[in-house]
Amino acid sequence: MNAAIIDPLQGDFPEVIEEYLEYGIMKCIAFNRRGTLLAAGCSDGTCVIWDFETRGIAKELRDKDCVSAITSICWSKSGHYVLVSAADKSLIVWNVLTGEKVTQTAMEKTPLYARLYPGSCTPSLCLACSVYSAPVMVDLNSGKTTVLPVSVSEGANGHSLPSRNKISDDPAPLTPACFNKHGDLVYVGSSKGEILIVDYMNVQVRAIIPVAGNAAIKNISFSRNGQYLLTNSSDRTIRVFENILPLKDGLKTLDETGNSLNELSDVEKLKAIGSRCLVLFREFHDSITKIHWKASCFSGDAEWVIGGSASKGEHKIYIWDRAGHLVKILEGPKEALVDLAWHPIRPIVVSVSWTGLVYIWAKDYTENWSAFAPDFKELEENEEYVEREDEFDIVPESEKVRELDINEDEEVDILSVDKDSTFSDSDISQEELRFLPPCPSPDVIEKQDKFGGGSSTSADRKNPGSPLSAGGGQNGLGENHVPNGLEAVANSVAGDAGGGETRLKRKRKPSEKGLELQVEKVKKPGKKNVKSPAQSLKLQSSSVVNDDARMPVVQDDGSDYYQ
Asked: Which of 164, 329, 333, 380 has the fewest CB atoms inside 10 Å of its own CB, making it the most exposed?
């Protein structure tokens, strides 16, 4: 597609299903930072890495001790590692390049959501949200866990911790939490409809932001640029908050704000600080159907917000612009939606269905030449062209080229790499892993059968018409395809009676002259009893089925006879 002839007035969001990926039963997906690799967790504990450019499998990560379903998957900042959480209460870190398991940590309860610390390229710390439990910080090297607070009592000065692992204290099955852009703060969504800003190093709540409706928060996530926070609540509303805190040194700003509000009580002080951290920017919901949302996220540039319907039997994705207008509803197959993700750079959405298929939604581009060429005119029918007087002059007076003021002695820098505005924080110490080298798998060679013939792969048996499946006919087996008489002559094999070494005869189709010579031999007396052409062909067909029958011999002149 030529980008110069695409209409810029078209919305930069996906419209149709371009392709689907199939591998077992996939449950969750995640793009790497550049969008070149797509990781998917399956129901059998396997993690498969797709090359998103070629749509082929680049790596399979499988642990023989883990056969439970993958609940979430997360990439490290450098792309060299992935963190997966499984239903068997384990957290596993994989090395994507080598396919080896780096660490494995056992949790007390099943983690439904896990995210790596974004401030480091090596996986050493993660945030895990388990079922019916408060979020915990996990040291992946030592296995030490730290429970984060999800509520604040009056007079507790932000240090109150919830009762651990009690369903009555937290009726929601999951208390979501996420890091901010640089990972110095954790934002927790409580079941009481509040957003708590937590200093996980000191295990202290630093601010509280009440959410309208006091509905339990089911999901919380930041945009890639860290300027917006998205929440999905049980009141069927997706809310977007604007982050007022600076992207770096957020703790320092919270300390300065708290020192100016010492006259307030503890809870009121935390709420006052929270009002200076997050501001409600927009609310999104379906005012007609009032549906629940299974998953939601930002686009790569935070210009669009998407929400996946939680209704059973439908695969709908709603797309809003940041101003709050519903611009598109993507309707897929009659399969419930499980998870979705937006490509970091391109207008592509990837969704997972209940059946385990991954659907790729892309934009349906239409070419509009007049949009980029103001002097280009689209014609409804042929028109006579009137030539200008100076159109084909060598140097037209109206289009004289002016000499450019270029310093030819200036050195051109071809070594420095400009930073991509999309990845403003690309100053990472470790080189990013963008693509995986191909790992071709060898063909599986099956054992020889009882007839002593050559082996064939399973693909050859499924496709008997393929070139590789011709070996079955040459070995005289003919499981799925019995050749006719002429093909039997071309594919026949002569073997010793004692089962010794087989010899492949010349693969030649009998010519018309050869058939005439056969007829002449029949007419000549005193010769051996030679069959007629029709009988010869019949006998040749039977020789393919019965390997004990006499095999025809093809002569150099194209004729055949039987000994």
From this structure: 380
